[in-house]
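Let's practice the habit of predicting before peeking. Look at the sequence and jot down your guess about where helices and strands might fall. Then scroll down.
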Amino acid sequence: VQLQASGGGLVQAGGSLRLSCAVSGRTLERYSVGWFRQRPGNEREFVAASSWRMSTASYADSASGRFTISRESAKNTVYLQMNSLNPEDTAVYYCAGSSSTGSTLKYGRGYNSWGQGTQVTVSS
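Done guessing? Here is the structure:
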């Protein structure tokens, strides 16, 4: 299984970006995908996850209300729509895949496949 993250870039504060995570080697059926980020000088942190079970979504407090995770099975792709971006959102964003569901998706150890990162830079 391979995951390919894309869609990062430079945006002004208050702007929006949509990240994409293309999955190859399997379908999204019974497959959860999460987004994590690593801000400069910080550890990797959970952002959002889309669980295959009942298609539920979960978000970090920092993302709730601003970010939306969604999946498009026909394209085998999971998206992260990010609105109202602020400079604190500047980070390398990673997508990851898992067969798990539930609270384990909030932790990196819950995933066994990772994509390369995509840089998001928000200017003030």
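How did you do? The longest strand covers residues 17-24.
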